[in-house]
Amino acid sequence: MPDWALAVLVPAGLITVCLGAYLLWVRLGTKEPLKHDNSMPETHFRESD
Predict the structure, then answer these.
(1) 3-state percent breakdown (helix, strand, coil) of the chain, nearest 5
(2) How far is CA 45 from CA 4, 5, 38, 42, 48, in A?
(3) pLDDT at residue 29, as a whole number
(4) What transmembrane ranges does the database entry give (predicted)?
């Protein structure tokens, strides 16, 4: 296999797999994909008095 084919097929394959996984993740129902659980207080960001 020529080097240029690897240089094209490897990134294209990775992008295709990642895009497919993302679309599957969205299709499976992520109503709020970026919601974080903020039940823990953010003590490391507070300055001690």
Answers:
(1) 55, 0, 45
(2) 49, 49, 14, 6, 9
(3) 72
(4) 6-25
The amino acid sitting at 11 is P
CA 6/CA 25 separation, integer angstroms: 28
For 8-23, the pLDDT digits (tens) are 999 999 999 999 999 9
25: CB partners within 8 A, 6+ apart:
33
Residues 6+ apart with CB under 8 A from 26: 33
